[in-house]
Amino acid sequence: MQPPDESTGFTELLGLRIEEATADRVVIRWRCEPKHHQPYGIQHGGVYCSVVETAASVGAAIWYGDRGRVVGVSNQTDFLRAVRDGELTAVATPVHRGSSQQLWEVHITDEADRLVSRGQVRLQNLPVAAPSTKQASEQPSDAMGSVDA
Fold it and tell me: Residue 42 — pLDDT band, cuts 50, 70, 90?
């Protein structure tokens, strides 16, 4: 499975570059710029949450592959150090990968390799539904049934 196209949607809006994407590790880089700031001139915590979710989701989706899709069900992100500018790097690795859920951890560091944020995302694996074996004629025509007169 290929990583998502970073030239569209939310990843483009944030300016994220997916530099490595495998089932065991995802690396994302971006520059903290004024467009990412909250009113006090530092990177908004929502950016960290979004990057954590993106990195974990990419890795989880690659690992789950053709078996179905994955969706985030919990994102817990800590903000450890204020950042005003510079390049940041997020590295996501799996903690647990089971049949129904996955747990990924993400560390975000600055250019001096200092931890500025960390998070974890729990994802639900949604398997592809098996095709139905019932023929259309075997299925009821309406929920209430019909009465012959």
Answer: very high
What are the CB-based long-range contacts (under 8 Å, 24+) for 133-142? Answer: none
Q: What mean pLDDT do residues 13-38 have?
A: 95
Strand partners, 119: 77, 106
pTM, rounded to two decimals: 0.83
pLDDT mean across residues, the chain? 88
Task: Please indicate whether residue 53 is annotated as part of the active site.
Answer: yes
Contact status, residue 88 vs residue 32, Cβ threshold 8 Å = yes
Domain boundaries, the chain: 9-115
What is the pLDDT, as a whole number, of residue 3? 57
> What CATH number matches the domain at 9-115, 3.90.850.10, 3.40.50.10860, 1.10.260.40, 3.10.129.10?
3.10.129.10
Strand-strand pairing, 86-97 and 101-109: antiparallel
- pLDDT surpassing 70 at residue 81: yes
Of these residues, 6, 12, 53, 111, which one is catalytic? 53
Q: Tokens standing for 52? A: 């954590």
